[in-house]
Fold each of these.
Amino acid sequence: MAPVIDITEARTHVLDRCPPLAPRDLPFRQAIGTVLAAPVHALEDVPPFANSAVDGYAVVASSIASPPTELPVVGEVAAGASTDRVLQPGEAIRIMTGAPVPSGADAVVMVEDTERLEGGDRVRIHRSIEPGVAVRAAGDDVRVGTELYGPGTLVTPAVAAVLASVNAAVVSVVPKVRVAVLSTGDELVDDGRPLAPGQIRESNRTMLVGLVRDAGCEAVDYGIVRDDEAALEAVLRSAAAECDAIVTSGGVSMGDYDVVKAVLSQIADMRWMQIAIKPAKPFAFGLLSSANGRQVPVFGLPGNPVSSLVSFELLARPALRQMAGVLHPQRPTVQAVAVDGLPRRPDGKIHYMRVFAEFGDDGRVQVRSIGAQGSHQLAATSMANAIAEVPDGDGVEPGGPVRTLLLWVA
Ligand code: AMP
Ligand code: MG
């Protein structure tokens, strides 16, 4: 049997073998949710011309220095239009938000500080303003040529909008990682039929497909594969041809029907790990050569639902995010307060206890156990939003500190 290793060694082994996918050019709209593979430089100034920040009157600031001032309105300019009229001192041009500031003007007085006089060809201005007021200079947001984003930047909706604003039509990104998800086991049923003796309802796949998506990847559902070596090999080979990574659940322990172990041992370069953690002690990782010559990472998660979740979080998720080009692929951790304590017994393992985390009145994160911690008790774990890392020993005293991975915090 493989020696028991610690979680850091297991994670390093996995991360070292899951480099980012090769970059691809994508139109900026399709790039949301991906990570940039190359720097992006601004191709244009934003805004492209000096324009008005308000609806009002373009003026020369010095001509309204002693309010109230009455000026002739010599023109009008709307957003999307422009004017050739050069504004002279002592004149005003009606201007709308986003319209180009006419040459000669150096400020815009907002309409709320003005009164259009009868007939409409004059305006009374009730205040003075400094030159530059309400004028948004060309390049005020982005200067042409500057490096906007470095490699590793996540393309958020706002980043994609900036790409649109500088006309960066196509960007080089790490493509979305396509992840095959499959469950193994003769006992599994997923079609709602009455359970025959020994059968259970399949649940891990639903969870893992969701976790894969939540990690920013595309999940491809390969269904349930029976405990049959030929069937499993066929599915694994097509998954390797079609996807960038494979996540399996079940069949990686010491049972006689653990076919995932039997098949992957023959067709892939695997490491069968026993990790000093609870839950999720057994874990398999390896590389499967695809028909098209790629090395496809395979994550063999245990079948017990809680173990499946925890080993996905600790090992598969960071690796998949690294493949997606994310620079810091691990979940954020905080030093939380274990309000009621997190007792345990020494056994040489780190316990990853599922907890509910929330902010206390003092602004610190407080965690409480969600209750049942058995590796088959997913119902209790499903109420957790964080995982507390309780080192070997007698656990954490009430009010004591505990390092906690945040999955989400309300
Ligand atoms: P295994 O890792 O295949 O030995 O399975 C360990 C335990 O997890 C057994 O009780 C299985 O019935 C259960 N299990 C395995 N796969 C699934 C699944 N996809 N959904 C729900 N339970 C499962
Ligand atoms: Mg099984």
Note: Helices lie at 7-16, 157-165, 204-214, 229-242, 259-267, 305-323, 378-381.
Amino acid sequence: MIVRVFVTYDIPDKGIKMLIEHGCEVDVYKGEEFLPKEEMIKRAADADALITQLRDQVDREFVYSLKKTKIIANYAVGYNNIDVDAAKERGIYVTNTPGVLTEATADIAFALLLAVARRIVEADRFVREGKFVGWKPKLFLGYDLFGKTLGIVGMGRIGQAVARRALGFGMNIVYHNRRRLPEHIERQYHAKYLSLEELMKVSDFITIHTPLTKETYHLIDGEKISLMKPTAILVNTARGPVVDEQALYEALKEGRIAGAGFDVYENEPELTPGLEKLNNVVLLPHIGSATYETRERMSEMVALNIIDVMEGRIPRNLVYEI
Ligand code: GLV
Ligand code: GLV
């Protein structure tokens, strides 16, 4: 039997090669523009396996249009773009790429913390515009990270990787998580568990690392933002809708908080109008896992999950319990 794999957007080669070596027929959409949903559905209909991207809305309609598909391997750790319940109903496995992008994403969270706190992007622009006429005592003053309190919202793999970096920078760590972590892990990071409200109040920096679920939609809403210190900075490298972006924009615009770093947006790729005009924000195009090494490992991982299914095993990164 020929196993047909449809890849909705071109990904690094490694996994594609592995699938071909395993005898799969791999159909990779190579266009630059995203495939319209109807076309995606058409090309996916006869595929035994799909490799999807986090921006593909694999909703109930899509899932129910699949005729032969046994596995949807999402090329991402987050899988809020897939109707997992519908897939489960139809006996289709859904897998993700946990673990391999933890360090790369933690790096981007930290890069944003530093970039906002030290006004890196603004300062770069200033030099390019020929405005640098010499050292000045008050030129581009920002905030220290050293000695400050970092609030980590979502203390999973990525949150903990950020905590390791923060320790090296001499920060105090507080965190909030759905479930409190075992004491030995808290001790490892000198991390103190707080309610989300407390965390918002005491943190100088806040970084978001929760998945997007019904429970975390607008977890950081206007009310939570209003608890932040006027000198505080918030960074989101998780999923846009975890934060009420309009409320955050208003707080930034009115100077109620000091700054924010975005790698993700509530209505990605759209920004809340006006966000791009603010100086106290750094805006990235969802590049948390965008390193050569990580994207290659993610490619390998989606392939391994598909090969698991071809060979009659339960895929290693199944996102739901059977
Ligand atoms: C990226 O956002 C991912 O979920 O992998
Ligand atoms: C991602 O790897 C996470 O679950 O934190």
Note: The mean pLDDT is 97.
